[in-house]
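Readers of this paper often ask what the protein records in our data store actually look like. The remainder of this section carries one protein's record, kept here as part of the documentation.

:::
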Amino acid sequence: MGLRKYPKEGTIGRVVLDALAKDPQITTEDLLPIVLKDHPESKFGKTHLSWYKHQVKKGNYILPKGMKILISKARPQVAKQQDVKQPKLKGKAARAAQKNRQFQAKK
């Protein structure tokens, strides 16, 4: 894609990037009313904010001098073992799982 100039005043891109500059953790739900205020006909959706964030992370926008948009590269949360639902096993699989649990408990 290459570098893009900072969006012109009055564009959706400008509204989004200005909002990201103020609050890098802004959600689509929080941003949508801001976009629709200036652009009521906009079809700004759930994936659009992530696209802009991705472009900023990749450094594809030339930001105005002195402006920084810091997007964290948050890692997805890992579910704890007790939060993961185990499938109900039947027959041989259930007996094997039970033996495995008993073996693990003996260790």
Summary: The two ends are 56 Å apart (CA to CA). Strands lie at 4-5, 61-62.
